[in-house]
Amino acid sequence: LRKLQINEADYFSLSYRIIVAGTAYILFPYLQRIAAPGVGIIDVDDLTVSVTGEFAPVLDVLYALLASSTIARLQARQDRLQDAANEELCHLRMLVWLVIELVADLKDEGRETCFTTLQTLWSYTDQLAFSSRKDELDLNIKDDPIRKLFVALHTLQCAEEDTPKATRERVERTTSDASRHVEALLTLRTQRLDREGQAVPPAVFVILNSLSFWILISYVLLTTRRELEPMPLTFSSLGVSAAHLLDKAGMVVQEGTVGGGGPEGAGSILSTIVSLFWPINTEGLLFAAMTSLLLVVRNLYRDLDNPFSGHTQIRRTVSTNSITGIRTEIAGTFEQYRLMGRLAACQDLSDACICGRIARVKADNFRDDDPCP
Fold first, then answer.
1. Average pLDDT of span 348-352
2. Does pTM surpass 0.85?
3. Rounded to whole angstroms, what are the CA distances from 160 to 70, 105, 116, 152, 350?
4. This protein's superkingdom (predicted)?
5. Same domain for 43 and 91?
6. Cα R_g (the chain), whole angstroms
């Protein structure tokens, strides 16, 4: 999965921000020249007052409010999903412990029912770990695992007639406790799936992207009417810059700074190279920084919209530990009673779920190589 998934951390890294800022800095003079014909007929004072006094503040405030509320809403959604998933796993693990106790108390048909119940609980962990929301909803309609648990516990409550009274009473108490955990699982699963579907409307992202665009455009218009920045790396500018550089080098040689081995001449030539071939302008740097920050904010709220696959995703350490513990206990029970066939069936089911998950990730990332047989 790590090989197939896009590394979302790259979209928040320093190198990514530097690349974005550098690209914006290079494009800034070109954007100014594209906007120049349209703003040339507008009075500079009127344009400045309109942008800084009326247009830009409204955009900035609206963007800040909408972005902050969107990020807060998505983060709260992740926290609610985290709490529901952890609580669901707690009830699931308690249910596994109770069923394992029933295995020791029952025999024959009752014990076989317990083993089947443990397989159902194993498949439930597969849903939590690998299934998508759509797949889980489809499975709940076709073959709901919680319904299987209810039926199995109802069957276990009718213990064999030859079971001792003390054992029968203990089985009834255990199945009664297990039934309460199953009811809690049903409630928590419904809440988790409902909260997972509470995504931000796509129109909110469209509005945020539009506001970001107009904020950048307003800055370009304002700076264009005031002054056009020099364009780096053009054929004409390269020729002129090369001529100036040769003149500067000749002056340095005549003064003897290079021949004397001093660093002043080399530093003078280096500063000339930077200033001539890559002119530094403050407005371009501000535009680059603003573009990088707006894009990082966009990546953040788009990433939060994917609570199970983004970089700032739901914390899975506790959940993974619980699922691993549940499977270890079920596998230990199967090994204790030499039911290696049931254990192999559970592992095969998990492998199929993993391949299904990889196939979905591969489809999302347009990969052609299939790691599954």
1. 87
2. no
3. 58, 11, 18, 15, 33
4. Eukaryota
5. yes
6. 33
